[in-house]
Structure formats: structure tokens, C-alpha cells
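Supplementary Methods. Inverse-folding protocol.

Structures were first reduced to a C-alpha cell string of length 476. This string, shown here, constituted the complete conditioning input.
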């Protein structure tokens, strides 16, 4: 009799836990959704002066893709989306079709990434809660309310990719890569991220390299890399037909050419960009752009979490303590290095593969840095509130310094980006001055712009070097 009562009590407790979890998750998700809805969908017109890109392109592509797939025309589907990720377009298309039942154009497609972005906020809370409830709530508040995060919650493919990356990192942080089952689950989610936006392929490559270095487990990281690569190829409809394979090979051959006019290039722009456009003096500008200045743009809101991360790092230095979870630190470093190694041209000598000639055209957009939002929020929260359970802080020596370097360099630029986005978004104009100086050495303003970028780069290098050497001894 007593055993039966105890069993009933346990069932009641489990039900209450499930109910509380569901209610809390629903509240957090709906709050994140409401903030984004008010800005982008409601009649308040709060987004009137904000930038958003490619609404009609993604609506057309996703709609056509759904049509071809529903009719079974794989050949047309695979050539239609050559160079574009199939899963990201498919998810956006399905959500848009559902949203069109109660929202007019273009709000129906805008609401699609908003839903996914709000789910990512919830995942960030769950990741932070692995460390402590306070860390989870602060991280959730940052990704929910950060103006930059809210503005680019409508970045279509990025929102899909970021949700799958966050889910993969949640599994890695909560369960680790202890068994092949966990490894496969993380690999599958990373594969979905790659098929949502190909930027995740760079993320995956950097992540596996850093895992091999920091955890001294080449076998585990290599297994993860191979699994993600194989699954990404096997599940990508672009490799299911001869036409799709041919389209992909043609695109890759164009992107491998020096000075390519295509948006993407296999010659990493941070290394070859200044040479490809014939302005080698712009190297300091390019390096700073791909480290953390690249999201400066007109009609772009400040990235508050970026600034708070810088403050949290200074706070950690003053306390002589770095208590962040190693996997969160690894995630932040990977996201920053993903942008640094992003095979996306900032400037090309023509636009749309030759449609416009004779002038440099910008191909780089500020929402690319959204990949840094979740790990930056989690790292900031952990550094400010601490890691009471001391979860996975065992990386020491050179590996610790290695994963700290990109974070320190990225965060050091936060005060500059914050000030410029408040009213002086002239980063591209500084490049223009340098470009003019390269053609006319008597152009004094260009020389000043070049000196400014060199000094900023020197500040970043000095700050990163000093801080990384100091933190090397303070990561437990």
C-alpha cells in the first residue's frame, strides 16, 4: 500500500515538473516572439528605418523549391538552388506558407525567421541553465532584447542555421561527446545547420579543429568532421541529380578563380581580398573587418552583447579568474573564427557576376555576425555571474590561450563598433579613403584613414597579447 502511494506521489511530482518546464519554456519563447513581433510585424512600424535584405529573393526561391519538390522534379529543384542551402529554403518556405494563412505579404515570410530566432532564445536559456538558472536567464535576456539580435532575427537562412547550431552545442555542453550515439546526434544537427546555410560548413571545420587541439582528441574530432561531411552530402538534394552536381561544380570553378566577381570565393578574402581588388594597403582594414568591425552599416542597431562581453572580460581580468565553461568558450571562439575565415567577398570589382562593371561593390552584410550572438551572450553571462558548479574548466596552457585569442580580439573592437553604430557608421567610408590614397599618394585624408586602421589593429594585437598571456594562468 505504501509503495503504491509512493509511486503515485512520484508520478505526480514528475507531472508537475513537466508542467512547470512546459509553462516556463512557453513563457520564455512567447516573450522572445512578442519582442520580435512588435518590432517587425505589428502596426507600430518600429522597423521602418531598419535594414532587411532579400525578402523577395528568398520568398521566390523557397516557393519555387516547394513547387518542384511537391511535383517530384528533383532535377529542376537541384539546379534552381545551386549555391543555396536546400533545408534552410525548405523550412522558410513551409513556415511562410503556414504564416500566409493569417499574415499578408511580406509579413508572412518575415515571421518565419522570427519564430526560429525565438526558439533559439529558448535553447540559449536551456544551455545557460546547465551552468545555473541565473546564467540561463541573463543569457536569454541578452539574445532576446539585444537590439542587434532583434533586428537580425529576420535574417532568413541565418536564423535556421543558428537554431541547429545552438541545438548541437546544447547536446555537446550537456552530454559531451562521450559515445558514438552522442557524437552522431551532434553531427546530425550540425549537418542540418550546413544544409540550412553553408556558413555552418566553415563553423564545423573550425569547431572540429579546435576540439582536436583543446581536448587532444584527434580521433573524436575527425570522426565528427567525417560524419557531418558525409551526412551533408548524402542529404543534399543538389547531389542527387546529374544536373545538380554539374551546377555545383560550375559554381565552385568560378569561385576558385583569382579576382572572382562572385559573392563567394575559395580564396579567403581576409588573406587575398586586398590583392584581388588591387588595394593591398587595405589589409589592416580587411583584418579588422573580419575580426569584428564588419557589421558596421547604415540602419544597423548597436550590438550590446558585444560591448558587455568586453566589459565581462575586463571584469574577469580584474578578478584574476576565468570561470567560463570550456565548451561555451570553444563555441564563442569557433563562431568568431567562422567569420574570420568566411569565404565571402567584402568588395568585388563588379556586381552580380559582371552586371555592373568599373566600380567596387559591397557583398558583405552586417547580419553575418549573428552567428556570434548566442555564444557571446552565454560567455558574458558566465563571466559576470560565475560558474558555481565549475563545469568543464580544465583547459590549460597553450590550448586555453588559443581559444581565448579570437574572443579577446573580437571583444576589443566592441567600444569602436558601439560608438560608430550610434551615429557614425563610416567604416566603409574609411575604406574608400584608403582606396583613393592607393591611387593617389598625395591624398592626405586617405593617409590618415590608413594610419587610423593600422593603429586600431595595433591596439587589438597588443590588447589580445597581454590579456591572453594573463588569462593563460587563470583558466582553471
Amino acid at each position: 500500500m505504501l509503495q503504491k502511494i509512493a509511486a503515485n506521489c512520484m508520478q505526480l511530482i514528475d507531472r508537475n515538473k513537466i508542467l512547470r518546464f512546459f509553462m516556463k519554456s512557453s513563457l520564455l519563447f512567447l516573450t522572445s516572439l512578442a519582442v520580435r513581433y512588435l518590432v517587425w510585424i505589428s502596426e507600430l512600424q518600429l522597423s521602418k528605418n531598419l535594414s532587411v535584405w532579400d525578402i523577395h529573393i528568398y520568398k521566390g526561391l523557397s516557393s519555387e523549391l516547394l513547387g518542384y519538390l511537391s511535383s517530384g522534379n528533383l532535377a529542376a529543384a537541384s539546379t534552381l538552388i545551386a549555391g543555396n542551402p536546400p533545408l534552410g529554403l525548405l523550412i522558410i518556405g513551409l513556415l511562410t506558407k503556414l504564416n500566409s494563412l493569417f499574415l499578408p505579404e511580406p509579413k508572412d515570410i518575415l515571421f518565419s525567421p522570427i519564430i526560429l530566432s525565438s526558439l533559439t532564445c529558448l535553447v540559449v536559456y536551456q544551455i545557460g541553465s546547465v551552468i545555473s538558472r541565473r546564467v540561463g536567464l541573463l543569457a536569454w535576456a541578452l539574445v532576446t532584447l539585444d537590439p542587434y539580435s532583434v533586428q537580425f532575427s529576420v535574417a532568413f537562412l541565418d536564423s535556421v542555421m543558428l537554431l541547429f547550431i545552438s541545438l548541437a552545442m546544447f547536446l555537446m555542453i550537456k552530454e559531451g561527446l562521450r559515445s558514438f550515439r552522442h557524437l552522431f546526434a551532434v553531427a546530425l544537427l550540425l549537418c542540418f545547420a550546413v544544409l540550412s546555410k553553408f556558413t555552418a560548413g566553415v563553423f564545423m571545420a573550425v569547431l572540429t579543429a579546435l576540439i582536436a587541439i583543446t581536448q587532444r582528441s584527434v580521433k573524436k574530432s575527425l570522426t565528427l568532421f567525417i560524419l557531418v561531411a558525409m551526412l551533408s552530402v548524402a542529404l543534399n538534394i543538389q547531389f542527387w541529380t546529374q544536373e545538380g552536381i554539374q551546377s555545383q561544380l560550375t559554381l565552385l570553378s568560378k569561385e576558385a578563380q583569382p579576382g572572382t566577381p562572385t559573392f563567394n570565393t575559395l580564396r579567403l578574402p581576409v588573406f587575398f581580398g586586398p590583392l584581388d581588388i588591387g588595394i593591398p594597403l587595405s589589409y589592416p582594414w580587411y583584418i579588422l573587418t573580419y575580426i569584428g568591425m564588419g557589421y558596421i552599416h547604415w540602419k544597423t542597431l548597436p550590438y550590446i552583447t558585444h560591448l558587455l562581453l568586453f566589459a565581462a572580460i575586463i571584469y574577469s581580468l580584474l578578478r584574476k579568474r576565468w570561470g567560463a565553461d570550456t565548451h561555451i568558450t570553444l563555441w564563442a571562439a569557433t563562431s568568431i573564427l567562422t567569420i574570420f575565415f568566411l569565404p565571402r567577398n567584402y568588395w568585388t570589382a563588379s556586381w552580380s557576376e559582371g552586371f555592373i562593371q568599373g566600380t567596387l561593390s559591397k557583398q558583405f552584410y552586417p547580419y553575418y555576425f549573428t552567428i556570434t550572438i548566442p555564444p557571446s551572450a552565454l560567455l558574458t553571462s558566465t563571466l559576470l555571474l560565475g560558474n558555481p558548479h565549475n563545469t568543464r574548466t580544465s583547459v590549460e596552457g597553450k590550448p586555453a590561450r588559443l581559444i581565448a585569442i579570437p574572443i579577446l580580439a573580437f571583444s576589443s573592437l566592441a567600444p569602436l563598433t558601439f560608438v560608430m553604430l550610434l551615429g557614425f557608421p563610416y567604416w566603409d567610408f574609411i575604406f574608400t579613403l584608403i582606396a583613393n590614397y592607393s591611387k593617389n599618394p598625395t591624398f592626405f585624408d586617405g593617409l590618415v584613414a590608413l594610419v587610423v586602421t593600422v593603429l586600431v589593429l595595433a591596439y587589438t594585437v597588443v590588447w589580445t597579447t597581454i590579456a591572453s598571456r594573463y588569462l593563460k594562468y587563470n583558466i582553471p
